[in-house]
Design a protein that fits this description.
single chain, 392 residues, alpha+beta, Neuraminidase, four-stranded antiparallel sheet, 3 helices, 25 strands, globular
Length: 392
């Protein structure tokens, strides 16, 4: 069946409210320059395109949910629609569980040894696993990460063990660490502690330093700012991080953060469905311990809050859309060499034996990290149990 389907480039678009569709490249090339975004795209009120990427009809599309599960479709299994169509509701294509929602989408051609999935949960747990671990996914989905009770998967990125990870919490803390600090673990594992959170705090965003030059931070009451990512020096994972946003009664907690460049645009959405679209070059660049400027005007006295933040995946013209998508597709096919500690053991023909590169000191360091993570998890579990007993 698959052999009868031509392997050609295609564009996948998914909206904030979960409508997805597949479009041919000809749709872009045949259009003239129009206003912002994708000309003629029909969406219902309070909806907009959140994910837009180019792939081929034979690529795998992986969908990760807040419950830590992953689903998979071939790109050609997504119904093809016209430029003006709304698309198909994702719940009609995937067998999602109750209260499950899509939090990340990954497109890939094949499962390579040198590519990893990096995940983060709201409780500060991070996990790095080889993409090959997710090669066989059932139609009913597969558990991508084991989550503790009340924890949720908030973000998934593809990496090559060469990048820095940035975690941001709702209390305005931020940590930046190299992904090599997180050792490669299996699919069924829980992961390790990426950030040590204080009581009542939770991670609201995970970004990679190569996604943009600045970190955009937005608070509950519509204030926000840009901060140069170079101000966040890398440290070891598991720390408390540094202050990245000054929280006051006027600002409220941090609701989201995105790594952006000056040419990007973002959407800010309130809990009443009000959406504002802003150009990044109009937002002030400030230091770490500041509150920022007003991005959206929220009336005082009303129970209106900023609910979420999304980077707009469209450009000002269709030609730019096509050019950027083609560049992303080329980057996805770049072969990156394996990191030193992930290479196979060297084979020696002289003595016909394998020689291990790991030293005893490195093994002891890994064991100490494991012990530290285990102690932290046990401490959290005991604390939760004590709180439940006090409530009873």
């Amino acid at each position: 069946m698959e052999d009868l389907i031509p392997d050609e480039n295609t564009v996948i678009a998914m909206t904030r409210l979960g409508y997805i569709k597949r479009m041919t490249i000809d749709n872009f090339k045949s259009q003239h320059r129009g206003g912002k975004g994708i000309k003629g795209m029909q969406t219902i009120d309070e909806d907009f395109i959140e994910d837009l990427f180019m792939t081929t009809t034979h690529h795998y599309i992986m969908f990760f949910t807040n419950k830590g599960r992953v689903y998979r479709l071939k790109a050609y299994e997504i119904p093809e629609s016209s430029r003006t169509a709304r698309g198909t509701a994702i719940v009609n294509l995937l067998q999602l569980l109750p209260e499950e929602r899509i939090t990340a989408i990954i497109a890939l051609k094949e499962y390579k040894d040198n590519r990893y999935l990096f995940m983060a949960t709201k409780d500060g747990i991070v996990k790095k696993t080889k993409i090959k671990e997710y090669q066989n996914i059932r139609k009913t989905g597969l558990q991508a990460i084991n989550l503790r009770e009340d924890d949720e998967l908030i973000e998934v990125k593809t990496t090559n063990s060469q990048k820095d990870i940035v975690l941001v919490t709702k209390n305005g803390m931020c940590i930046r660490f190299h992904e090599k600090d997180v050792r490669n673990t299996g699919r069924a594992s829980m992961g390790v502690i990426g950030m040590n959170l204080t009581d009542g705090d939770e991670v609201v965003a995970m970004q990679i330093h190569t996604q943009g030059k600045y970190l955009l931070t937005v608070s509950e009451y519509g204030l926000g700012k840009l901060t140069d990512l170079d101000e966040f020096t890398p440290q070891r994972r598991g720390g408390k991080g540094v202050k990245c946003y000054k929280i006051t009664e006027k600002t409220g907690n941090v609701v989201g953060a995105k790594a952006v460049n000056e040419e990007h645009e973002v959407m800010i959405i309130t809990n009443e469905g009000i959406i504002i679209r802003l150009a990044i070059n109009g937002i002030s660049i400030l230091g770490r311990i500041t509150s920022g400027v007003k991005l959206i005007n929220i009336e005082a006295g009303k129970d209106i809050r900023v609910a979420s933040l999304a980077k707009v995946r469209e450009s000002s013209t269709e030609e730019e859309v096509l050019k950027k998508l083609e560049e992303e597709l080329k980057e996805e096919n770049v072969v990156i060499p394996l990191e030193d500690d992930q290479e196979e053991d060297e084979y020696s023909e002289e003595d016909d034996s394998y020689q291990e590169d790991d030293t005893l000191a490195e093994e002891e360091e890994d064991l100490m990290d494991d012990k530290k993570d285990l102690e932290e998890l046990v401490s959290r579990a005991l604390k939760d149990q004590e709180e439940q007993e006090d409530q009873e």
